[in-house]
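Box S2. Input/output pair 1.
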Amino acid sequence: MLHLVATPIGNLGDISHRALEVLSNADLVICEDTRKTGYLLKHFEISKPMLTFRVDNEKRALPRILRLLEEGKTIALVTDSGTPGISDPGFLVVRAALEKNIEINAVPGPSAFVMALTLSGLPTTSFTFRGFPPHKSGPRKRFYEVDALASHTLVYYESPYRLIASLQDALLVFGDRRGAVANDLTKKFENVKRARLSELIEFFKSNPPKGEYTVVIEGAGKSDFTQPA
């Protein structure tokens, strides 16, 4: 059986009892980075063999994973933080396992984009999560243009190295909409900056980005966003 196990996005206290039980009983843990997952397992006194599964080794690792599943092994799939399969290659394991009629279940838990959305103050009744925009400005603008007329709230992930440039492209495509930028969620210095895109750009020019970010932008329709920055 394949278990999709959500893990904390920062605060280790957010792991669930069920997640710990599944990890303790697994024959193998599939992860993006054995160092990060190893730290998590060690903290909870769990010792398990680990296998990396990421973009650069997916073609080599996937056949081995499927073979172990077909042999009846219990495998837990995790990501570096949050819910596996969200903006990581974990969905490839899920798709391949389904094609082999292998049983799958999920252990729910933290997800950075859901937390950022609920903290943004922007409408949550309808939204689109789009993951990471392209690295370069031209493709990134075209990526944003797909969402330009959408009336619902938009959610993206972004690297600290591209955050300002990404917000600048968003401003060009969307106009000066309201937004929120969240980082270090669940950690000691958790922060959510709420302002218009132009103001967010100026803020991060004066406060260099560090860590991973979730960007939430209001849709083309009117928003009930009223919170001060």
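Box S3. Input/output pair 2.
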Amino acid sequence: MSICGCKGWGELTREGLARLIDHTLLKIDARKKEIEKLCDEAAKFNFFSVCTNPYWVRSVRGLLEGTGVNVCSVSGFPLGSSNTEAKVLEAKWGVDDGADEIDMVMNVGAFKDRDYSFVLEEIERVVEVVGPDRATKVIIETCVLSDGEKVGASRLVKKAGAQFVKTSTGFGTGGATVKDVRLIRETVGDELGVKASGGIRTFEEAVALVQAGATRIGTSAGVRMVTEG
């Protein structure tokens, strides 16, 4: 599968879904034993990646060594209102510690103020430091955007050279919806990945999002998705 995972899906099996899952633990009180469990589960079920806060990246890299599971971290999470230098450094440190992918949060306030040049440049700087051999995913936080803003934000992400548009942090007032994923996919075409995240709990929900155009699923419920039913 390509870094974006852009392809058509027929009937999606639980094993196929597993390879689209970023197995995620971003809560404030995550403990070492929970991170170890997360990595064990990701290796057992062949998830695409483990996604954690930057503090855990080096440990996760070691725990996943030789498993084929990727390491994902975040930048500017969850609010997106850090200054640009902080976001760039956080992304760089993540890569230096062993992250294969960085999920950055767009500055939504600046976007809503229509400071599009700032938003574009900030994403471009993170994309540059992450590099072409790793994936930068940009979280646009769809729950606080109008449909027109979702289109505009997705276009900026594509223009900036990122590999994915991601719907949500999971810390906002709403998460991924079929409608939003379909809108983003229609906007970016087949050239970018679309990561659906936030509130995805069941296999059926994940399948509906993939059918709408998602090529990655961010969830803390991956084990349930691929084992129950």
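Caption for Box S3: The domain at 14-227 is CATH 3.20.20.70 (TIM Barrel). The two ends are 26 Å apart (CA to CA).
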